[in-house]
Amino acid sequence: xxxxxxxxxxxSMLRAISVSSEPMSAGQLSxxxxxxxxxxxxILTVLEELNVVIKRKIGYLPGPASSGFGAAYLRSMPLVxxxxxxxxxxxxxxxxCVHLSMLRGRKAQILAVDxxxxxxxxxxxxxxxxxxxxxxxxxxxxxxxxRDAVAELVDDSMVERVFEEIRAxxxxxxxxxxxxxxxxxxxxxxxxxxxxxxxxxxxxxxxAEQWDNDSELRASKAVKLTAKRLSDRLS
Length: 235
Known about the structure:
With about 240 residues, this protein is an alpha+beta fold. The protein has helices at about 5-20, 25-35, 35-50, 65-75, 80-95, 135-140, 145-155, 160-170, 215-235; strands at about 55, 60, 95-105, 105-115, 130, 175-180, 185-190, 200-205. The protein folds into two domains: about 5-65, Arc Repressor Mutant, subunit A (Orthogonal Bundle), CATH 1.10.10.10; about 70-235, Beta-Lactamase. The relative contact order is 0.11.
């Protein structure tokens, strides 16, 4: 098997930076990975030029270009491939952004994004992570999980509030969220095959200026119907 030391070191550095909860300095990378500091700096310089990492005062973080690698992998997943036609049809029908999410640790990770022809550019990207306890996709996923599993995924201080919210989600059949960051509303419904082998969330994102009771009713019906059809297809 061919061995390319510089490439191996670059990949190990990217892994370390990606899983760290804080920026990593060159010194940390050198110590933890046992790579000479001069080599670390050389590799970081190239990665920064390519936007794979970005430099901050106290260290390095994953850069914009790094998300493309994960997104390419996510697009190859069987779930994403099976859901792609449904996501496209829903995006066209609602003329909005649609995304599919799945549980990753304590976050809801977006696996795929599509948008209708006349919809504004989506603010979410494949690979983005959202809080499972406060986001609409996260709450839609939690609504399908048993109580003890939910408790393990949510901070103790929020457990009772989350239980109340997911009870409402179960009654409505969908979760709803107002995102003040980008002035949108999100409606999410759970995708769960009868086998119970996975739980995902299908979401429609609409601009706040288009939001009213009628649009919520129309969007909720569309996303619930599409999520059910996709669940049946995956069963």
